[in-house]
Write a structure and sequence with these properties.
three-stranded antiparallel beta sheet, single chain, 8 strands, 8 helices, elongated
């Protein structure tokens, strides 16, 4: 669960204390601001709770998506949440696996790609090959790095971005993906 102090730092905590915030507005500019704020709230929660895979049904149960401060409980409905999640998908904060299920990118795949390449340069791995597991969980991977202990699917996506930009080659041998840094 997100700490109240984390919300207060960026004023989002104040927003979820107002019942009107739980109904997306029809006015275009207001709606865009709400969707942006909800995206940040939801992503911050998922990241702080270390949630990598979830579903719309699970998200609808989150206490942060409901306001119980009045006699009538206000909560985002499924369609509103879907609209917010689609916006988050456009920002690469989440990826749809099915119509209901999604995976969460704590960091954008492009940011991960840059972090992995910076790490490879620092570790003098340019010209060498490393497995995805070695990148995310290897002895040379500091626990404080953005990609430490992330699922291999997210590491692979970032490495494919490196491949598309000419900074690496990605290959698979016997079901194990490896990356040769250029």
């Amino acid at each position: 669960m997100i700490e109240e102090s984390n919300f207060k730092q960026n004023n989002l905590f104040k927003l979820i204390q107002h019942p009107a915030f739980f109904t997306l507005q029809d006015h275009r500019e207001s709606r865009i601001k709400q969707i942006n704020a909800w995206s940040e709230i939801i992503h911050s929660h998922l990241k702080s709770a270390k949630i990598l895979d979830t579903s719309i049904s699970q998200l609808l149960q989150l206490p942060i998506l409901a306001d119980n401060s009045t006699a009538i409980t206000k909560r985002l409905d499924r369609d509103e949440l879907r609209e917010i999640l689609d916006f988050m998908a456009d920002l690469n904060l989440i990826e749809w696996k099915t119509e209901e299920n999604l995976s969460v990118n704590w960091t954008s795949p492009f940011e991960l790609a840059d972090a992995i390449y910076d790490w490879a340069k620092k570790m003098k791995l340019i010209g060498y090959t490393e497995t995805l597991k070695g990148i995310s969980q290897g002895d040379m991977t500091d626990r404080n790095l953005k990609f430490h202990d992330l699922p291999q699917a997210q590491i692979l996506k970032a490495c494919e971005i490196l491949e598309n930009s000419g900074r690496a080659d990605v290959f698979e041998v016997d079901g194990i993906f490896s990356v040769k840094f250029k």
